[in-house]
Fold these 4 entries.
Entry 1:
Amino acid sequence: MSINTSIYVRPSTSSAAYLDWLQMLTGAGLILFMWSHMILVASVNLGAGAMNTLAHFFEATYMAQVGGPLVGATMLFHFILAARKVPFRAEQQGTIWKHAKFLHHQDTWLWLVQAFTAMIILIMGSIHMWVVLTDLPITAAKSAARIQGGFWLVFYLILLPMVELHVGIGFYRIGVKWGFIKRKNRKKFHKFENILTGIFIFIGLITLIRFWFLTTA
Ligand code: HEM
């Protein structure tokens, strides 16, 4: 006779709903952070002085020193919450892949993109935050030097689309899951999400080009 030694306890419906709420709230917080972050970094397009002034403000008020680690912790917490549903094992991945092909529904594919980009963002986002936050103060000259070195340019060219896809799809999925995107306006919102993702990738690329050519005395 075999004894089942599994200690897996299925969460109750109410705790599963509570964890879903937390996942959504941390996700929404991170979406707002990423939109603000992209706009703040893009301030370099107005001149190195504009970016330096903003960076100085965030450091003088300790928002970078306190907010940075908080963003990191939120990212990790959001990942742990979302990991409840991510297929990590090979057989689970095989099953979800078969289901996605069988269902042939765009939202299932979007979910797969969401799970894949999450892994990359967790690793690359953590490295990026560590490098920036352990080398304060943030200045346009330091950022430009990093990007002009080449390595960080390639790094950001990978991270940028990963983040923007994840943020765009996440925004759309929150809308579908929590009901403000209804079946009849799904297509419209989907288009809106694609445009938004495109705009942020465009802003990010312009900013990287600006850093590449930036000369500071
Ligand atoms: C509070 C934490 C963060 C700070 C202080 C910060 C700061 C910066 C700075 C100063 C740059 C300019 C490039 C450089 O200096 O190397 C930058 C670029 C970038 N960051 Fe962050 N960052 C933070 C969090 C994140 C997170 C969580 C992500 C995504 C997971 C992220 C993604 C990016 C990307 C993709 C770029 C390139 C931007 C572009 O294309 O113009 N950052 N960040």
Entry 2:
Amino acid sequence: MPSHETPHFDSPNFNPLARIYRWMEYLSFGPMLERCRFRFVTQCRDAQNALILGDGDGRFTARLVSINANIQIDAVDASTSMLSQLRKRVDRVSPQASQQVRTVHDDLRRFSPTGTDYDLVASHFFLDCLTDDEVEDLIERISPHLTQRARWLVSEFAIPRAGLWRICGRWLIRFLYFAFAKMTHLQVKEIPDYAGALSRHGFERREQAEFLGGLLVAEMWERKVL
Ligand SMILES: C[S@@+](CC[C@H](N)C(=O)[O-])C[C@H]1O[C@@H](n2cnc3c(N)ncnc32)[C@H](O)[C@@H]1O
């Protein structure tokens, strides 16, 4: 059930990477991003309505729909080619899975959901495409559309706390931003403080897992009950 809206002209352009994105990832980080992305997916078997932000080629969405036959998913991305990969991947899961996913072509710096009952949000390696202010604004826009106990899964790069990983991590993240600026015209240059923004909007971090010495983190946040 795809729906299409027009994204804004200054969105980063991930279209040229859509077909090769997975292979770029495997060549550079092996299975580690995948492990990070799927770290908490099995805990989402009971989720009913999910909003997936910038899922790219749809590996998380396809996995989620394959383990949860009841969930309805809105998957939003600014790249038509990524969304087309996502649809193909979900269609391969099952005909029923296709019916469970709605794709929305929009820039998440402006997108406003229509539903009011998402109990799950997932953003895997997406919040790093936004600035501090844009993350704050996104969470503020989305929050009224979430249930009281909504969970938010995050996968992100992070600067490791200590040692050689910290020195290498800093340079690697700088290099990745440089490479993505060249390939997609992404203008963001550093990882935003999404943890601060989630906390300010009433979320608490329930679980966290680190990979590659802390260069990758998977987190599960939950909205505090007021
Ligand atoms: C680095 S990729 C990550 C893809 C996927 N979530 C993953 O785990 O591999 C970032 C994705 O976010 C999308 N994206 C980046 N900025 C966006 C924006 N402002 N609005 C909507 N989508 C955006 C890109 O098109 C791309 O598909």
Entry 3:
Amino acid sequence: MEKPEAPRLNPRTDLYLELTALVSGIMLVAFVWLHAFLVATVIPGAPVFDGMARFLDRYSLGQIGITLLLLAGLTHILAAARRIPTGYREQRSLWRVAGRMRHTDSYAWAFQVVTGLFILVLAATHIWVVVADWPLEAVKSAWRVQTDYLGFYLVLLLISEFHGGVGLYRQSVKWLRFRRRPLALAVGAVVAFILAVNLAAIWALLRLGGVS
Ligand code: HEM
């Protein structure tokens, strides 16, 4: 059986990078989940969303949050990127091993690499668009969702929630030795709940009036 290439870093550096990817990943998932509830303030109505936006601005929480998010994102990419097989031989070897062993975790890992790259491009575009139109306002957000961005948001939503969910599952199996089946059900339930909150927020933005 063909073996994937051994990691080229020494074990201690490898462990530090692994922990860095883990901590930055947890911060990113926490942000994306918190973000769902912030956008969901539009569900009771535009004034609640606008009040939340003014509150964030009063204490510069938006700017602080964006800076922390960018730092966590960059750290996560750099720490996780070292495991991406760049050479043709490494990639072929990974797919062969995954295929022969029917190893779900190897596919899950490959899925993480691909969805991570999509999130990088889509989230960077989204943050750019929102920040360029600062301050946050419900009518501006509703205008984006009601004109060009609905499909974009649905794709970003699905891949970011799945990427976060699969990452949490894999890391919990690895570090906390949770049993796989109950863990998969628990993570699936939380992701389904967060997805529902996001979809309700998108629906409220779609229905919001006063958008010209
Ligand atoms: C700090 C940076 C961010 C800010 C200020 C921000 C702000 C917003 C705002 C105001 C909306 C409402 C729609 C709009 O205005 O266009 C929105 C929607 C959305 N954002 Fe972000 N966002 C940020 C980062 C992210 C990241 C990193 C992700 C995912 C990886 C993300 C995913 C989404 C999705 C999927 C929606 C659609 C509505 C929803 O699902 O609630 N955002 N964001």
Entry 4:
Amino acid sequence: MWGSRGGRDKNTVVCIACGDSVPRADAREYDKEGNRWERHDKAFEYLCKPCFKDISHQPRTELEALICEIEADGLSQAEFLRRYVDRMEEEYGPIEES
Ligand SMILES: [Zn+2]
């Protein structure tokens, strides 16, 4: 599914969990930061429906632990996101930048 980016459908997003390209309309926006930052500064990530369903059934403690782990005083948003992406890539493999 990696080859579809920039193709016929530019409204395609990549699921951060499984790496599949899915239509934006079918994806679930994954607001990993809650309301911590203004929306316009956020880099939203997306989950396909199956992965969203998976995540919804899992306890959130793991994600919260991860966020607490990579968070540090004075950490910029960009650095936080970079660390987060690094950790997600360790878990799920490379994340395609859009
Ligand atoms: Zn997925």
